[in-house]
Amino acid sequence: TQYLLDMRTGSTAQVVPTLYFNTLNQLVYFANGASRITSNTTVPVNTWTHIAVVRKSGTSKMYIGGVLQTATYTDSNNYIGQTLRIGSTYQDNTGFCGLMDEFRLSTTARYTAAFTPATAKFVEETSLDKMLEMAEERLRKKMTEPPKWVFPEDP
Q: pLDDT tens-digit profile of 51-110?
């Protein structure tokens, strides 16, 4: 079992989402103390794969590579904010062994039907990335600019 996302604080049932791969390499969406959606396909090993779990109008759905998985979950949970662990569990074990790119949580349903996964960056949603890029650029400029001398005014 390898965890992609875990917001639990302990082993008791909690109204928080958890996402992990079972021993058959199927993706499992676990919430409110039970497995709610298990992918009907296995996720290929050593291959970049787009994974999405979406909730809209009280229904949670899972997409693997843009393909809607057959199971859905009638989801009326009011998810509570907890510590977000990406690639690990609340116990900091059984972590994800692999690479991830562009992991994001949204308050908007990004996908509502089968889709072709993007091959480029999510440019329109990279506000944090853009801020980091701008900060790095400022730091680069600061390190390459000659120093600015500031002299106090004569009294």
A: 999 999 999 999 999 999 988 999 888 887 778 888 888 888 777 888 888 787 788 888
Long-range CB contacts (< 8 A, 24+ apart) of 72-80? 72/37, 73/29, 73/31, 73/36, 73/37, 75/31, 75/36, 77/15, 77/31, 77/32, 78/15, 79/7, 79/15, 79/16, 79/17, 79/31, 80/14, 80/15, 80/16
Its pTM stands at 0.73
Model pLDDT, residue 7: 86
- Six-digit token pair at 9? 């604080």
Contacts of 77-83 with CB under 8 Å at 24 or more apart are 77/15, 77/31, 77/32, 78/15, 79/7, 79/15, 79/16, 79/17, 79/31, 80/14, 80/15, 80/16, 82/7, 82/8, 82/9, 82/14, 82/16, 83/7, 83/9
